[in-house]
Design goal:
The structure is a single chain. Helices cover about 45% and strands about 15% of the residues. The longest helix has 21 residues. The chain starts with a helix and ends with a strand.
């Protein structure tokens, strides 16, 4: 049996252990010059500007039918070509930019452009390109590549453009 003094001693030890383990960890803030990359610091896998430009120059735009975001056989072929380029440059990140022609409301075109951008990313991911390399954005009909108001211009504007980023 525990005596009253033994019980009190054990209780004090337990309380001290609980207090010691419950304290917040000490936060050490870096001093001047600490925690920042120093001169000559290089990222582990630097992406050269020339490499970004070469990838960008070779990527094909993907075009869509009117009011559609499904990928045609021609679009899938262009994306298979793009996937080969992206496999050879695994450190390159991309923005899938969805665009629409001028027909439709601004809200509708933004949503359609978003679905197009996501359809392209999903297809590239299905080809083995990691999803974490992509982000998406929709510009709706705000950035036409052809300012014309006819079917030829509209066909050029219904697209997804893959823009490389660092």
């Amino acid at each position: 049996m525990f005596s009253r003094h033994t019980f009190r001693g054990l209780l004090i030890v337990c309380i001290l252990c609980i207090l010691a383990s419950g304290c917040a960890p000490k936060i050490v803030k870096p001093g001047p010059g600490q925690g920042q990359p120093g001169p000559g610091w290089q990222p582990q896998h630097p992406v050269l500007e020339q490499q970004l430009q070469a990838v960008q120059a070779n990527l094909k735009a993907v075009y869509f039918d009117y009011d559609k975001y499904t990928l045609s056989p021609e679009a899938q072929s262009a994306l298979q070509y793009n996937a080969e380029i992206l496999r050879s440059s695994p450190q390159v990140l991309l923005v899938s930019e969805g665009h629409c022609d001028e027909r439709g409301t601004a809200e509708y075109n933004l949503a359609l452009g978003d679905r197009r951008a996501r359809a392209v990313v999903e297809f590239l991911v299905s080809l083995g390109i990691p999803a974490n390399r992509f982000s998406t954005v929709s510009y709706g009909s705000e950035i036409p590549v052809d300012p014309g108001h006819n079917e030829a211009a509209w066909a050029k504007n219904r697209r997804v453009y893959l823009r490389v980023s660092k």
